[in-house]
Amino acid sequence: MSRSSDTLEGPANGPVDEDAQAALAERAGELALSRNLTVAAAESLTGGMISTALAAAGRSSEWFMGSLVAYASEVKHEVLDVPPGPVVSATAASAMARGVRRLLKADAAVAVTGAGGPGGQDGRDPGTVFIAFDGGGEHRVVRLELHDEPKVVCATSAAASLRVLVEGLEGM
């Protein structure tokens, strides 16, 4: 049976730099290997930052299936089966995680979409981010409200997505 949580609101806690992302990706890899799981990612505003960290992690060829950078709304809708409507939403993040998991035949997936700034998107303020995890019997979405320049919003979103992935894999 699938377990789902409501959208959570809160800050991304912890460091967000490349070293932090690398450490989180290593942890995701350790968990995937120890549980014999494969991982995929779907990214929008982070533009490949998550997949770069995962690909650089140890023994990634054994557990990382790949990723899809779906920056354009049309790609989200046409490739990842995001339903019509806003792409900066919990619904879009959920569909992205499920879609990339299905496409890449992974055991678990993380997805992120949001308005990086400096302007808003889909009626959302800049810094509004949705991260979804899909794996095993768990599906959850986390909402972040970040207040910083686009570069920092992207780095924070990538690190937060990796944290969500680690937490999800810990539960599998």
Which labels suit this protein?
single chain, 172 residues, alpha/beta, 7-stranded mixed β-sheet, 5 helices, disordered N terminus
Verbal overview:
By secondary structure, the chain is an alpha/beta fold. 40% of the residues lie in helices and 22% in strands. The protein is built from five helices and seven strands, in the order ββαβαβααβββα. The protein has helices at 18-35, 49-56, 73-79, 90-104, 150-170, and strands spanning 3-4, 8-9, 39-43, 64-69, 108-114, 128-135, 138-145. Strands 1, 2, 3, 4, 5, 6 and 7 form a seven-stranded mixed beta sheet that branches. Helix 2 (49-56) links the parallel strand 3 and strand 4 (64-69). Helix 1 runs parallel beside helix 5 (150-170). The protein is globular, with a radius of gyration of 14 Å.
Category from helices, strands and their pairing: alpha/beta
Would you identify the regions where 5 or more consecutive residues have pLDDT less than 50?
A: 1-11
Approximately how much beta-strand content do the residues carry? 15-25%
Q: What is the makeup of the main sheet?
A: 7 strands, mixed
Anisotropy-based shape: globular
Topology as a string of helices (H) and strands (E): EEHEHEHHEEEH
Measured between the Cα atoms of the first and last residue, the distance is 13 Å
What is Rg? Answer: 14 Å
Fraction of residues in helix:
40-55%
Taking all residues together, what is the mean pLDDT? 91
Number of helices: 5
- Count the E strands: 7
